[in-house]
Every structure is written in structure tokens, then in C-alpha cells.
Design goal:
This protein is mainly β. It contains one helix and eleven strands. The radius of gyration is 23 Å and the shape is elongated.
Length: about 180
Amino acid sequence: MKEKPKSKFALGLALIATGALLVFFRPQNLSNGPDYTFESEPVKVQGFTSQEEDEKLLPTRILIPNLSIDLPVKKARIIKGYWEVFPDSAAWGEKSGIPGKPGNQVIFAHAREGLFLPLRDVKGGMKVYVLTLEGWYNYEVKEIKEVYPNQIEVIAPTEDETLTLYTCSGYSDSKRLIVVAKRI
């Protein structure tokens, strides 16, 4: 059955009108990207208590040779309940654990080239090295998982010495890649 020219014209007009409505009156559920990104919600801090920080023991560099990650680490202050995120380095979360001591030290960075992007290729057993003014601390990757940004229990304090690496992952940075390493 042959379609009439009028019906093709009407269909074309309807598609153009629908497109114009979507462009000018964009529905909320069609927004660009997720509600949670490193830019809009860096790393929410919860459960860490104030502790004396010996500047000699704070991380200054992180090295993961298998992934060609070699980055300076800056201290990320807590601002309005979130740790700062730096565009040019990794960050150690203020009040998180300290190398060589019990606790969960959290080091994080953007999932960008030259930062933690290669972390997506991490494997269990890989070595991670953290430098302080006192020397190097050696860790081994034990666990790799992906979580949603509101699952902040992954960065909660721990009883034993733990190193947690944290970066964006998932479609449009909608999830977080968590790498847990233990001291060797």
C-alpha cells in the first residue's frame, strides 16, 4: 500500500515539533550526565575524627609502576563536608589514615590522563607505593570494586592499616572505582 504525500508531510511536521520541544523544554530526566560527579560532589567525608597529623607521615607521592602512575599527593582539606579535589595531583583526605598506622588512608584523583585514569586497569596483587618524608610504604591491591557516590562506607575508618584509592568510573562518571590495598 502506497503512503499518501499528506501523511508523510504530517509525520515530518510532528517530528520537527517534537524535536523543537525537546530542545527548548528539556525534561529533567534527559539532563546531561549524572547528578553525582567529582566536580559537583568530590568526596563526602563521614566518620573521621580529629587526630594529630605528623606532617612527616603524610603521603607526598603515590606510585603504581604497573599502571605508570607516579603522582604528587597533596593534603585535601575538608570543606563543607567534602574533601578538596585537585586538577593536577592526587589528594590525601585530611583526617583519614596515615601510612604505617592503623586506619583507612584515602588517596583519590580525577579519572583523567596523567592522574588516576589508568587505575581502571588495576589488578589484584599489583603493588602500590606511598612516599612520606619518613620513607616508602609498600601495599598490595586486595580488592577492586565499583560503587555509587553515596556509598561512602568504602572510605570509612578501619581498625587495620588500609590504603583506599578512589576515582570516578561508570558512564559519565556516575560511579566510583574503589581499590583497597593492604600493607606488605
